[in-house]
Amino acid sequence: GQEKLSCNPKKENGSHVVLCELGNPMKAGAQITVDMELSVSGLEDMGDAITFQLQLWSKNSPSPANSSVTVPVEVQAVMELRGNSLPATTVLPTSWHKVEGSRRLEDHGIKVEHVYQLHNKGPSTVSEVILHLAIPSHLGGRFLLYLLELGTEGGMTCTNLPGLNVEQV
């Protein structure tokens, strides 16, 4: 049957040790399987794996058995994308046409600003995040949204789209 282990963390010679009592007394020849879930913080610079030293011993055994286990490091972070448009609602007139050759913004349509915020909800830190944002710019061979500029804040960089401000407005 499945039982919960009673484990006690402690520090020993500068190392963190977790001592778990598996059974007392245990019958001769008994075989057990133990699944452990460990939560370790501060692994940002540890590479792809960390090593745990496991030591199994019995009070009846004269020599303890030692082994090392290398565990792949799996970083988890929950990312949340929030966005809004300013103004929130835009109604375009059905008979509106842009003024050809004009460099004035108002001659090309109503200004709509889309703002997106990417938040890391943790528990781990992240780096090198790539966000692909697809914006429909044409509908039926005509401009739906004229993409004027793309900007960032907070130390991020963006790759500009090939269709960004094609008419140099």
TrEMBL record:
Record's keyword terms, sorted: Glycoprotein, Integrin, Membrane
Domain Integrin alpha third immunoglobulin-like: 80-167
Keyword set includes Transferase: no
One annotated GO molecular function: integrin binding
Domain Integrin alpha second immunoglobulin-like residues, every copy: 3-75
GO cellular component term of the entry, any: external side of plasma membrane
Main location: membrane
Record's protein name: ITA2B protein
Species this protein is from: Anhinga anhinga
